[in-house]
Design brief:
Number of domains: 2
Structural class: alpha/beta
CATH superfamily of the largest domain: inorganic pyrophosphatase (n-terminal core)
CATH architecture of the largest domain: Alpha-Beta Complex
Radius of gyration: 19 Å
Helix content: 25-40%
Largest sheet: 6 strands, mixed
Shape: globular
Order of helices and strands: HEHEEHEEHHHHHEEHHEEHEEH
Strand order of the largest sheet: 6-7-8-9-11-10
Strand content: 15-25%
Number of strands: 11
């Protein structure tokens, strides 16, 4: 769909439900909250849903407490999946999404999708928030305020690794610059999402990082977060979020992998890459996906077998 068609579709709806993906990151949540705030100012009745808890750093986002705050309606004029590359990313809200009289997917991931009747996709965007901003700008830029701008900027800065990933383009930087004009606390946003670490997360890092394993002349690094590590440090799976980036920052590492045990024989895997290594290609081997330099997937099995399979996929991608 072209952007004017997307705007026309949304304008035709009075009741709208927005859906973020499971294991939410800032792009999916901030994009949903920004669009919600914008549409409410435009006179729409909007609810936001997500099958998953918000991470610590998301709790202070503008209107974060509105996620899952409304009782789901039997149906909506329009349902919108935000940053969801596949239907199963909607989790328990898949059925509610389908109950919309019309449904739309707004996303920037590479995977094919056919679960939505309408799609507004741009794989060149640094974050889905770019597309949300373009909708607002072409609809009524006067409705954008400091709170909305902070949400858009937060999504951009987190999904691009503080503007360090290859998915950053001229448009990404131009939009980030435009958000600064609203007087947002950009330095505080970057600190909160890239440098601030809770004491318990620090203890988890010091326990686990010392056991990082290296392969293929140190080009592949693997860090594993097991349930025993969480128990020993009083942490949970959420404390391990994005810690793979610390491993990816080691000089010479081209593929960094974190394997997180979410329950016995079930693992969440995150991948970060440099140079020619393609994180998305590796993740797709296991039914996951993402971007060239950042991707992930879920997998099941015995740890040793899971590690062997991941290493083979990584080696094939060097």
């Amino acid at each position: 769909m072209e952007i004017n068609d997307v705007i026309k579709l949304i304008k035709s709806a009075n009741t709208i439900a927005l859906f973020s993906h499971i294991n939410p990151d800032c792009d999916t949540i901030c994009s949903a909250l920004a669009l919600k705030a914008f549409l409410v100012k435009g006179g729409k009745a909007v609810s936001a849903f997500c099958d998953g808890d918000l991470k610590r750093e998301m709790n202070d986002l503008y209107s974060a407490d509105s996620v899952n705050a409304d009782t789901p309606s039997a149906s909506y004029d329009l349902t919108i999946a935000i940053d969801c590359a596949a239907e199963d990313r909607l989790g328990k809200y898949r059925t509610l999404f389908k109950k919309g009289r019309r449904n739309l997917c707004i996303d920037h991931h590479l995977q094919d999708r056919n679960y939505a009747a309408y799609n507004f996709i741009d794989a060149k965007a640094g974050a889905t928030a770019e597309l949300i901003y373009l909708i607002m700008k072409n609809w009524d830029e006067s409705l954008i305020d400091k709170d909305i701008a902070s949400l858009i900027y937060t999504a951009l800065v987190t999904d691009t690794g503080n503007f360090a990933y290859s998915n950053v383009g001229v448009r990404t930087m131009n939009i980030a610059s435009a958000m600064l004009s609203y007087g947002i606390p950009n330095a505080d946003i970057s600190f909160e999402h890239f440098r601030a670490v809770s004491r318990d997360t620090f203890l988890l890092k010091t326990r686990v990082f010392s056991k990082t394993r290296f392969f293929e002349d140190n080009k592949i690094a693997v860090v594993s977060f097991m349930q025993e590590d969480f128990q020993a440090t009083g942490t949970t799976v959420s404390n391990s979020s994005n810690l793979v980036s610390d491993i990816a920052n080691i000089a010479g590492v081209e593929i960094a992998v974190s394997i997180t045990e979410v329950k016995p024989n079930a693992y969440k895997v995150s991948i970060r890459t440099h140079k020619d290594a393609d994180a998305n290609a590796i993740a797709m081997t296991f039914g996951g996906g993402g971007h060239k330099n950042a991707a992930g997937f879920m997998t099941n099995g015995f740890y040793g077998n899971v590690l062997d399979d991941i290493l083979k996929a990584c080696k094939d991608n060097l």
